[in-house]
Amino acid sequence: MRLPIPLLGRLTVREYLTIIFGFTFLALDSLLKFIILFLPKPVINWFYRQSRSLFYWFGGRGKEQNEEKRASDKVLKAKDFEDLCNIHGYTHEEHVVLTKDGYLLGLHRIPAKRGERRDNPGTSTGKPVVYLHHGLLMNSEVWICLTNPERSLAFVLAEQGYDVWLGNNRGNKYSKKSIHHGPNTSKFWDFSMDEFAWHDIPDTIHHILQVTKAPQLSYVGFSQGTAQAFAALSIHPQLNEKVNVFIALAPAMSPAGLAAPIVDGLMKASPTLFFLLFGRKSILSSATFWQSIIYPPIFAQVIDKSLVWLFNWHSHNISTHQKIAAYAHLYSFASVKSIVHWFQIMRNAAFQMYDDDVLSPVVVTSVSSYRPARFPTRNIVTPIVLMYGDSDSLVDIDAMLTQLPSHTVAKRLHTYEHLDILWGQNVHVDVIPKVLASLELYNTQEQTIGDVGTSSRDEMDFTAS
């Protein structure tokens, strides 16, 4: 049933109710954040203690102490990338990339094995270079916030003799600065995946190759980090010469939609309603506040329920302690515009650039008079390796392969969902060896990686931290 209201009459009653609910929720959320600004820290700590008491009252388990629980507590309490590296004995470097349009991007580097320190940081190591890039609403911490370093792809790569770099998108925890606009302005947040592709990815790769003096690097992306690479490689032909292989974990290009019918239907009907609900700055900025006052096991359960509702992800392959540790590092700031861009892609079932024409022309004939520009992904020359979970609701591998060049290789991960590929219990068995094998196959560096050809198939010597 649709209401006979001019302009808005294309929305159903369910969509109107969703809008009303969304505005109400955001109003309450804003009010609570305003109140919290004036609350002293002891009061905030009181709320945290009460949520912990409620967890135990309803039979929650969290007092047991075992090796994974102790490791989880360390990861949970880590403030940033440096703390996470220190937990497992790695020394990192911090770099800053200035994009051509003025954003300052935080860039992390793990140049050496565990316990090793370099006397000349910020210089070439002579090792093959691997660049890891995170997904939507994430930052570089997602690669190393694991309870066991053997399951962290970044740490394993460092142990195998790679020079490991981890990027960050503009606007997130490590990249919230621009030389033109402050983060409290709408202009700062006026970016979508287009800007990631035109600037963030190529400018970061250029910086890495300048520092390392390497002719090429290998790119490993997760989720939106793969979409950004698909887009960047498709519109920058010269970038293909700098990337010897692109490994796409949980690849994202043009997802069919969300599992939640209300949200999926509403946003496909009019993605720009997101601007009405969330404004034109960062999205879900209150997440960090809720995380600070809710007991971590409860916060993890909230995230779990949300993932089931939105994506039908049950995360059975991720342990409870790993969830509690990793979910604390999951969220990072992103623009509302970048979310709207994804809903435009879903609505049109096409991997397209951001559509600035929010009021698209009314189609009166069978031939459309307007079509948003699409990323020409079939033109990518760089070798592509897709690693996808066959239980991931966001991946339609057959549809994706039709939009990619014929040299693309797809590897299925049985029973894996989306986040499993990062934090699953058996990623060191099911995922990481496949990544290492692909890197060895496609890496064209003249210098060798020590004994990487044999050690990649041997069990690595990791001890508990």
Structure notes:
The protein is an alpha/beta fold and 465 residues long. The protein contains 18 helices and 9 strands. The protein has helices at 13-36, 41-57, 67-77, 81-87, 153-159, 193-212, 224-235, 261-269, 273-278, 287-293, 296-311, 320-327, 336-348, 397-402, 420-423, 427-430, 432-442, 452-455, and strands at 93-98, 103-110, 129-133, 163-166, 177-178, 217-222, 243-249, 384-389, 409-413. Strands 1, 2, 3, 4, 5, 6, 7, 8 and 9 form a 9-stranded mixed β-sheet that branches. The N and C termini lie far apart (59 Å).
List keywords for this structure.
single chain, 11% strand, disordered C terminus, 18 helices, lipid degradation, transmembrane, 465 residues, nine-stranded mixed beta sheet, disordered N terminus, Triacylglycerol lipase, alpha/beta
In short:
Residues 82-145 form the Partial AB-hydrolase lipase domain. The protein has 18 helices and nine strands.
* H-E string: HHHHEEEHEEHEHEHHHHHHEHEHHHH
The dominant shape is globular
The poorly predicted ranges are 1-8, 445-465
Q: Report on the biggest sheet.
A: 9 strands, mixed
Q: Determine the number of helices (DSSP H or I, runs of at least 4 residues).
A: 18
Proportion of residues in extended strands? 5-15%
Structural class: alpha/beta
Number of strands: 9
Fraction of residues in helices?
40-55%
Report the mean per-residue pLDDT as an integer: 84
Radius of gyration, whole Å: 22 Å
